[in-house]
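FAQ

Q: What does a record look like?
A: Structure on top, sequence underneath. For example:
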């Protein structure tokens, strides 16, 4: 059996990774009274910190040598205070059927997978553990870890990540200290399941980021003729004249997004609206600057 190329399957281009690898996307003071992910000391080089590493001295445990850093700097460094400076990043993808929504041959689920892969790469570059927590019982996820083998395991899990056929209430993962949860969802729900889920994730000991994924046509209702709309969750269908509903639709949509922003801000949750039409590198760059301003 021929193994699939995770980079090609996920639409993950190595050129994209090379352009964003210098970003420290975790720059943010988390509500722990301490800095988590934020590297405040002088840099040794790309992604290296004096607070994380020190030069090798004779007698040091050779198992603590970081060969990745040696490859970059041609110098030996010992990992230091790893427990204190690193955090665990857990990605939480929405696996409900609405994530199958497609625009221009690209689904919300595929977009979420690509974003997760890019941010997992950045987490790895920062020396932070990363993994996936499935929100449904059918998906056990990937336990946060680091290393090249873990990177391949993570990508392979993304490839085989499937949508649920029906909506089910998300499961709250076990919350650890110094935890960053990153949620990818269109936030469509029946009875505030996602809002309650995200509220329960956020504590003073961790941080939560929500990537709200929407299509260009969803945001601007770019439909010009009578169209048959199908609910991907329950299969119901409705034929409507878009022109007659567009104005009211956009008013209600904008109000909904405004309420989401306000609710998340009040809960201390970082919210980012993602338009699937925007190139991923632009989305990531914009978000990095946003995170930097928060730091």
């Amino acid at each position: 059996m021929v193994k699939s190329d995770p980079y090609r399957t996920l639409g993950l281009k190595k050129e994209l990774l090379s352009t964003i690898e210098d970003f420290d996307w975790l720059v943010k003071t988390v509500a722990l009274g301490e800095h988590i992910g934020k590297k405040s000391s002088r840099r040794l080089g790309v992604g290296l910190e004096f607070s994380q590493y020190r030069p090798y001295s004779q007698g040091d445990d050779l198992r603590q040598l970081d060969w990745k850093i040696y490859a970059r700097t041609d110098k030996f460094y010992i990992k230091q205070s790893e427990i204190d400076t690193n955090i665990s990043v857990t990605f939480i993808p929405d696996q409900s059927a609405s994530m199958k929504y497609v625009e221009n041959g690209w689904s919300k689920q595929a977009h979420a997978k690509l974003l997760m892969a890019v941010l997992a790469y950045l987490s790895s570059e920062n020396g932070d553990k990363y993994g996936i927590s499935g929100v449904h019982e059918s998906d056990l996820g990937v336990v946060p870890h680091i290393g090249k083998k873990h990177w391949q395991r993570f990508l392979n899990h993304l490839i085989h990540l499937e949508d649920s056929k029906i909506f089910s209430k998300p499961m709250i993962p076990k919350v650890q200290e110094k935890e960053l949860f990153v949620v990818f969802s269109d936030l469509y729900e029946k009875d505030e399941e996602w809002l309650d889920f995200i509220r329960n994730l956020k504590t003073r000991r961790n941080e939560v980021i929500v990537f709200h994924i929407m299509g260009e046509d969803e945001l601007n209702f770019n439909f010009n003729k009578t169209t048959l709309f199908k609910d991907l969750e329950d299969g119901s269908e409705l034929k409507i004249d878009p022109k007659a509903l567009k104005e009211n639709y956009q008013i209600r949509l904008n109000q909904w997004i405004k309420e989401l922003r306000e609710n998340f801000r009040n809960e201390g949750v970082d919210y980012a609206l993602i338009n699937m039409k925007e190139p991923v590198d632009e989305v990531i760059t914009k978000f990095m600057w946003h995170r930097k301003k928060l730091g």
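Q: Is there anything notable about this one?
A: The two ends are 47 Å apart (CA to CA).
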